Amino acid sequence: MSTAETVMPRGRRLAVVTAITGTVFIAGGAFWLSFTALADLARRSGTDVGQAWAWPLIVDGIIVVATVAVVALASQHRPTLYPWTLLAAGAVVSVTANAIHAIIAADTDVPSVLAASVAAIPPLVLLAITHLTVILTRPIPSVTEVSETTPELPPAVLTEVKTDDVVLGLEDAPTPSLPVAVGSVSERRAEAAQLREVEGWSNKQIARHLGVHPSTVGRWFGAEAKEETP
User: CA torsion sign, 22 to 86 to 96 to 55?
Assistant: First the structure.
């Protein structure tokens, strides 16, 4: 194995480890901010202090579990409608609850829209960073797994062709008609005279039959006429 082939996998592994470490820290910070806001909202809504911590775990926990389920089922080519529904519902509830808590707990000098926007960022970041973390940690399929999933093509069928079949096919083929250009000039002149006198053929027909030019046939008959003249 060459040096380049050894360094490149190490570089990729280092990049993946760094990305995973960063996403874990970001996800932890986003979860902590969302957790404190949702727990305080639960306390303000009448939930006991000792039980208020469970509500943010339920809301944000749905986001984490549903994201992992979506990626896992997609890699197995299984339906992902239900986990996507849970993921969307958890994200909507978490963003809405964080925005409501920001509006309630924010100072009067801060606009409500700004407070709600700032509070909605942690749950959205938690959603995106969890998905990214699952994708980074998903194992890359090996060459063997890829070859096993590749559909096999049916084997080619070789048809035996016998020599007799080829000979029979050539014998059955029609033979093209070629112009007759066999024999000496005197024989062709005699045949041309016979075709003209007996069959009544024209010079063009005789020339086509003998494979010569019509002017040649005309010269033959002109020469014969001069020989017959005393």
Answer: negative
Angle between helices 3-44 and 112-137 (to 10 degrees): 140
The per-residue pLDDT for 96 is: 92
Single out the residue of 180, 217, 208, 71 nearest to residue 131, CA to CA: 71
Total residues found in the chain within this entry: 230
Say what the pTM is: 0.51
* Pair of tokens at residue 156: 């080619």
Q: What is the rounded CA–CA span in Å between residue 33 and residue 122? A: 6
Give the list of residues 6+ apart from residue 29 with CB closer than 8 angstroms, or none.
122
Residue numbers of the chain with a pLDDT score lower than 70? 1-9, 138-183, 223-230
Segments in 45-162 forming alpha helices (H): 54-75, 81-105, 112-137, 143-149
- Residue 123 tokens read as 């749950």
| N- to C-terminal Cα separation, the chain | 105
Tell how many helices (H) and how many strands (E) occur in the chain: 9, 0
Joined tokens for residue 55:
């509500």
Per-residue pLDDT, 166 = 47
